[in-house]
Amino acid sequence: MNPIACLFIAAALLALAHCQDLSFVAEPSNVVNGTTKTLTITCRAPSNVDADVNLIILLQVDQLKDNVTVPVASERTGGTVTHAKNDRVTAEGALSGDEGAFLTVNISGPTKTDTGKYQCRFAYLNMELFKFSLLNKSIDVTFTEPDEPTPKPVVDGACSCEQVWAEVKNLRETLISENKELRQQLKSYDDTCRVSFTAQIGERLGPQFGSNDLVIFDSVVTNKGEAYDVAKGIFTAPCNGQYFLRLSMRTHQERDSGYVDAAIEVNGEEAARTSVYTTDHMDHYEQASNGLVLTLEEGDEVQVRIQTNSAGRLYGQEYSIFTGFFLSP
Predict the structure, then answer these.
(1) Answer CATH for 196-328 from 3.30.460.10, 2.60.120.40, 3.40.50.720, 2.40.110.10
(2) What are the φ and ψ backbone dihedral angles of 292, each rounded to 5 degrees?
(3) CATH classification of 3-143+180-188 is 3.40.50.300, yes or no?
(4) Is the pTM of this model over 0.70?
(5) For the chain: N or C, fewer Cβ within 10 A?
């Protein structure tokens, strides 16, 4: 293929990769050794993501070192988590509020190891369309010595063809390198890991559950990757990574009052609990839900178990749903 055509194709791929509407900036973008006091990296959700319609799940800042993704900090439903084992690194953020979803990472006294390529990943769920979206954007933080100021371009009235071709060659090599990095990032999102499922209780009025009974959601709405075992009611993680799990249930109380507690378990250990309680003597139905982001290892099993039951039955079909999907490595 003609080299110029390759150049334009690579440029188009690179432009497509960076067209996401994420605000991701580093201040300053160039760290001067021994001079820069603090490096601040901020990622903000797109302004067109409406928090009233979308469930914002995750904002995460990673550093890319030698084609390895190293988590720095993340903002999840449970709060801000700093992954870096370094007391110079702090983070703050929020998934909702007047300023929208954001995550800010501050690195005090940055060194050369704190520079390089960073990426921001943003995950959210459209609750009207039940559509999951994952956006990402990357930036570069450079490093210079105090006696090595950033050179300014020299403007010359005329230049030779050799100079033009040298610049074209440098640009081409840069695009090829960045395109290679992009392909490696896309390859890291192995499609075999990108599973999702939604299951519900098939009967309109489900069976009577006792304490410690496993709830088997026996009617599958979707099961991409077949990671959910409909016969056992167990979801098995196919890969290491972060997953979103959610339990929604509606109960029918056969007495004037009562409650049903159910828990999302990982390998038999409780991870989240949902409780439905009603004292309404006329309307014996009540709804509750809970969800969370979990870090699972390949082979981990997730299921729903009744913890306590006071004369209640689950109302099935679209009212009681167990759902989950893979977020990121």
Answers:
(1) 2.60.120.40
(2) -160, 160
(3) no
(4) no
(5) N
